[in-house]
Amino acid sequence: MQVQELLKGLEILEAHGDPSVEINSIVYDSRKARRGSLFVCIEGYVTDGHRYINQALEQDASAILVQKPVGDLNVPWFRIADTRRGLAHVSDLFFNHPSGRLSLIGITGTKGKTTATYMTKAIFDAAQHRTGLVGTVANIIGDEITFASRTTPESYDLQALLDEMCDRGLKHCVMEVSSQGLMLERVYGCHFTSGIFTNLFHDHIGPTEHATMDDYLAAKLRLFTQCQHAVINRDIDCFSQVRAAVGGSCLTYGLTGQADIRAEDIKKTTRHHRIGTSFNLQSPWYRGEVFVGMPGLFNVYNALAAIAAAGLEGVGLEAVRNSLSMISVPGRVQPVPTGRPFQVIVDYAHNAASLENLLNTLREYTTGRLVVLFGNGGDRARS
Q1: What is the pLDDT of residue 368?
Q2: Is the pLDDT confidence value at 209 over 80?
Q3: Which end of the chain is more exposed for a tag (fewer CB within 10 A), N or C?
């Protein structure tokens, strides 16, 4: 493609050189630049891509996209206001808008994103709907699993993943959409069939994330500007604020009678040697008993979010039941077989609210001692 085709739709503040130069790759890491590359200079928390323009030129980059004024260069260069948004824009065009070629489901919230995405994928797979996954633990395309370096990939990497899913014949993708991913424009240009808001807790407040809880919430609410259908947890404290941000179609889920998708008659139970929870499902699409093979009320909420995504896509109740009864999510109340009279559980609970919920839940299933080993990743607000 010509660079001018990639830049179409962006406000160009300054342009130098031939806009018809051919581009066959986009890079934001100067070490990957080569002939035919458009090097996009991203200003990050640790370093600034503008500092590496010379390295990109030494490696024969064909054009440069910047947000800061630069001197004379021997290749075409273009200045825009925000290269993070610019990278997302040119990547979306370069890969021919892959989010418009499949049904993309985005899930945001402080807790539950990973579990809800795995549950959603499991339901779709049970219904024979080939579905990709993008998230904290891994990115999944068919049988190929690659471990993820961040919850929501950089925009170019995300568009490349979605394009590969399309090329492999996948029709659906479910992805975790982090507040950072929204704030840093990683999902700019993506069209979501459904956007799901799970909850909001005090987390991700710090010098490299969000200054305040208001900023944190505002970042997450940006998802609703890019989705066709909104789905919101009806039972969260900030429901009114979240609902007010939705201008179009909106469904709710929860445990109260006001929710569109809700769980009633909830019971702790064990089936197929799995501890979990059963409930009577009420929804616009179907009603009936559902067993979730993961313990805890929070996993009932996660299941309801996944059921909402499935219902909006026309997936039936049998796929919901079959998949959720045997669901397994890496690092999320994940059992480790011991062959001995005690159970080992691995869970990613990494803040006070998550750990408290987890321990209260496990205590309900425990008759003896509950031994806890926990750590903290750090780099968070001291509060």
Answers
A1: 86
A2: no
A3: C
163-190: average pLDDT: 96
Separation CA 133–CA 104 (nearest Å): 10
- Average pLDDT of span 99-115: 95
CATH architecture, domain defined by 98-325: 3-Layer(aba) Sandwich (3.40)
Q: Where are the domains of the chain?
A: 3-94, 98-325
- d(C-alpha 46, C-alpha 43), whole Å: 8
> How many whole angstroms separate alpha carbon 337 and alpha carbon 22?
56
SS3 212: coil
At CA 44, angle to CA 43 and CA 47, rounded to 5?
A: 90
Q: What number does CATH give the domain 3-94?
A: 3.40.1390.10
CB–CB of 239/250 below 8 Å?
no
Distances in Å between the Cα of 339 and the Cα atoms of 55, 328, 330, 380 are 56, 19, 20, 38
By C-alpha distance, which of 167, 97, 91, 177 is closest to 133? 177
Cα distances from 33 to residues 39, 52, 58, 62, 124, in angstroms, run 7, 11, 9, 9, 38
pLDDT digits 0-9 by tens, 2-48: 999 999 999 999 999 999 999 999 999 999 999 999 999 999 888 99
Q: Distance between alpha carbon 381 and the CA centroid of its chain, in Å?
A: 23
Question: Strands 131-134 and 138-141: what pairing?
Answer: antiparallel
Phi/psi of residue 263, nearest 5 degrees: -110, 130
The band of 378, judged by pLDDT with boundaries at 50, 70 and 90, is low
Sheet strands (E) in 241-328: 249-254, 261-271, 274-282, 287-292
Entry pTM: 0.90
Q: What is the DSSP string of 17-53?
A: S-TT-B--EEESSGGG--TTEEEE--B-SS-BGGGGH
Q: Given a cut of 80, is residue 206 above it in pLDDT?
A: no
Cα-based angle 89, 12, 155 (whole degrees, multiple of 5): 20
CA neighbor of 327 nearest in space, from 89, 129, 157, 115:
115
> Do the strands 192-197 and 172-176 form a parallel or antiparallel pair, or are they unpaired?
unpaired
Token pair recorded at residue 57 = 């030129």
